[in-house]
Amino acid sequence: MSVIIETSIGDLTVDLYTEERPRCAKNFLKLCKVKYYNFSLFYSVQQNLVAQTGDPTATGKGGESVYGMVYGEQARYFDLEVSPRIKHKKRGLLSMVNNGNGKHGSQFFITLGEDLDYLDGVHTVFGEVAEGFEVLDKLNEAYCDEKHRPYRDIRIFHTVILDDPYDDPDGLQVPDKSPGPTQEMLKSDRIGVDEEVDDTKGMTEEAIREMVAEREAKANAQLLEMVGDLPDVDVKPPDNVLFVCKLNPVTTDEDLEMIFSRFGPISTCEVIKDHKTKESLQYAFIEFEQPEHCENAYFKMDNVLIDDRRIHVDFSQSVSKLQHNAKGQASNPKEDKEDEDKPKYVLKDQQRKDDRYDLVYEHDDLPDDGESSKKKKQKKHKHRKHSDSEDDNDSKDKKKKKSKKHKHSRSQSRSPVRKEQLKSRSRSPDRRDRRDKDKTDRRNERRRSPSQEEDRRRDGRKDGRKEESRRRRDRSASPQRDRRDRDRDRDIRR
């Protein structure tokens, strides 16, 4: 049994396996008869795999079988048909989609590849494409996003049944004509079916070239803005500047200004020179005060002979003298200089007395004139000097008092006897040498490294231990020595 599926990219003629898959074939035929598939989207197209459709919601979660339309919600889905077994071996097979519970509804897919064995036993093959393989090629080549949704909608417009061997179920309502699409069916965020994508349709070759050149220029301007060569994408070169090239190296600024000044007043005329050699690079920029004078010079001076050279004159495309202001727009340096010359705002007093905000004045509106501010500064400076001198005097007096007190206490602590002893002490050279030697020894001890100090302490501990052991031996040996002495004295008396 055959059905023609009319899509937005062409027609497909399919043959159904009515004997091998009677329930699936009957469900598909009756859904086509009630125009259920009209305006359905191919919402999932995977290259060399499958193209899925049959869901009115285009989400992959909707749809119902013809049995659900007749018998209610309990018959929305029907069971798989697994016998006889038909494999997904070739391209162009129609297969009912498994809803995840081993049942089928209205969704189906068309295979776009061969030997898809992993689909066997999961989805039910119920037909194949007999005509319209070029439509399958278009489906397979459709541009899709990461979710396999085509960027341009592909829809089923209409289905035509060529032969239907099954009787209609009781209660099935067949419309007299194909119903129109609803707003929900046509709602899509992709390129519409009837939307024209080719924006060059009906244009001449010259218009197409101009459009392409304009787009390329805009893309180049965006790149130049990103690298910092342009202040803004939409910046335009000045219309009162001429670009003159193919000059003779001997031509100077004065020569060009004299020649071009007959068209109107000239603001600047500059022949570009090399920074190191100061030689002419054979091109120049001439800025007129009025754009009309610049335009007249452009029409009159192109291809004119100057110093045995045919010069070329064109409007300047340079924006190097334009700067980037705060709003992201090109501005003239002269205007920026005028802004800089405007009076700036300053604080009334630079020394803040508290944490509160103070008033702000312009230079001309300051409350005190220059002389009063100078007097204040001089007073502050004198006050600082006076305070510093007073502090120095106080510190000197304190030091003198401390030294006097120290001398007085020393003199009081020394008694008259002590003074006489000190006076009577002989300050011989030997004593001074011994005192100097003690000082040097103490100084050397301070300068010793930690390792030397540790060795000295270790040696001192060893000497102490030796002395202690010698004393112990002497104490232990003293009773024996006393006994020997007594025996010797007894022998002498005898």
In total, how many beta strands? Answer: 21
How much helix, percentage-wise, in residues?
Answer: 25-40%
- Determine the strand fraction and express it as a percent band: 15-25%
What's the number of helices? 12
Radius of gyration computed on alpha carbons? 55 Å
Runs with pLDDT <50, length 5+?
324-330, 407-417, 419-426
- Please list the strands of the largest sheet in the order they lie side by side: 3-11-1-2-10-7-9-5-4
Largest sheet: 9 strands, antiparallel
CATH superfamily of one domain: Cyclophilin-like
The coarse silhouette is: flat
Distance between the termini: 162 Å
**Could you name the CATH class of one domain?**
Mainly Beta
Q: Give the class from helix and strand content and strand pairing.
A: alpha+beta
Q: Looking at CATH, which topology of one domain would you report?
A: Cyclophilin
Mean pLDDT: 79
CATH architecture heading of one domain? Beta Barrel
Task: Give your account of this protein's structure.
This is Peptidyl-prolyl cis-trans isomerase. Its EC number is 5.2.1.8. Residues 374-386, 398-411 have a biased composition (Basic residues). It catalyses: [protein]-peptidylproline (omega=180) = [protein]-peptidylproline (omega=0). With 494 residues, this protein is an alpha+beta fold. Among the domains are: 2-186, Cyclophilin-like (Cyclophilin, Beta Barrel); 241-318, Alpha-Beta Plaits (2-Layer Sandwich), CATH 3.30.70; 345-388, no CATH class. Helices cover 40% and strands 18% of the residues. It is built from twelve helices and 21 strands. It has helices at residues 22-33, 66-71, 133-140, 183-186, 205-227, 253-260, 291-301, 333-341, 370-413, 416-424, 429-447, 450-493, and strands at residues 2-7, 10-16, 40-41, 44-46, 50-53, 78-79, 93-96, 103-104, 108-111, 124-131, 155-161, 241-245, 266-273, 280-288, 305-306, 309-310, 312-315, 323-324, 330-331, 345-347, 360-362. The protein has a nine-stranded antiparallel sheet with strand order 3-11-1-2-10-7-9-5-4. It has a four-stranded antiparallel sheet with strand order 13-14-12-17, with helices on one face. Strands 6-8 form a two-stranded antiparallel sheet. The termini are far apart.
